[in-house]
Design a protein that fits this description.
Order of helices and strands: H
Radius of gyration: 39 Å
Largest sheet: none
Shape: rod-shaped
Length: 92
């Protein structure tokens, strides 16, 4: 009887060890999957940062072009006012 109880305990211990081994294998796989997901997210972050920088540079370029155009429009307006003023003084 004592031998049977001892054998049953040994079998239970072996079964628990097998379960633990499988759980460790599953946890390692999950760990690898999560590390890959983190790596993928980091790569996506780098890609998005690059896109943001590119868009920002384009926006800055367009903003500068817009300022230049406004300055040119102001200059044209000033020249037009001078010409109109000169015309008015010549007519008098």
């Amino acid at each position: 009887m004592l031998v049977t109880v001892s054998e049953q305990c040994d079998q239970k211990i072996m079964a628990l060890r097998d379960e633990e081994k499988q759980e460790i294998v599953d946890l390692k796989k999950e760990n690898q999957r999560l590390y890959k997901r983190i790596d993928d997210l980091r790569q996506e972050q780098v890609s998005l940062q690059t896109q943001v920088r590119t868009q920002y540079k384009g926006f800055t370029f367009l903003s500068m072009k817009t300022l230049i155009l406004y300055k040119e429009l102001d200059t044209i307006s000033l020249v037009s006012n001078v010409i109109n003023s000169e015309r008015s003084s010549l007519r008098k």
